[in-house]
Amino acid sequence: MRRIDLFLGFFKLGAVAFGGTGPLTRAILVDERRWLDESEFAALLGLCQALPGANTCNLAVMLGEKFFGASGAVTALFGLLLAPLAIIVVIAAFFSAFSGNADVRAALFGATAAGAGLALGTAVKMVRKLPADRVLMALASATFVAAALLRLPLPEILIVLIPAGYLLYGARR
Questions:
Q1: 39-84, pLDDT tens digit by residue?
Q2: Are 120 and 128 in contact (CB under 8 A)?
């Protein structure tokens, strides 16, 4: 792989992943480019979600650094952010001009629903790829309950579930 491949892979992701990059990130990095396998992607994404900042930006930096060091991290992040930056400037100008229009507001509500559906679809795909292990399913379920139902802050969830995951699953491997 060359730096230009890294740039173009993340540029494509940034250019086409409207409403959230979860589903397309996996498709591009695992299925299309084969830069990561399924387990590497799940582990890296999990780490990136635990870090402050945007998950996909964290992923671009970490993957770019893995392949080319600091210059790879900058290359991947720049590739990821270039297209969305240009697009959001145009959208912001459009929204500023038409934000009072009821049709524009309705379209934004529809986009919100589509984004939520994309996030759920990605989660289902990732869960299906996990080994059929009761401990892993229990940890995933506990995370869902804590975050979605109890609405606990992410740092509190991580402080409890990371050591629990290691003790229940990691230590026995």
A1: 899 889 888 888 888 888 999 999 999 999 999 999 999 999 999 8
A2: no
- What does the alpha-carbon distance between residue 22 and residue 26 come to, in Å, rounded to a whole number? 7
Tokens read off for 60: 């671009």
Rg, Å, the chain Cα set: 18
Amino acid at 58: N
In angstroms, the CA 8 to CA 17 distance is: 14
The domain segmentation of the chain, as residue ranges, is 3-129, 132-173
Nearest-angstrom CA–CA distance, 34 and 157: 31
Residue type, 32: E
**Mean pLDDT, range 117-142, rounded to an integer:** 80
Question: Considering the chain, what percentage of its residues have pLDDT values greater than 70?
Answer: 96
d(Cα 61, Cα 78) in Å, to the nearest integer? 9
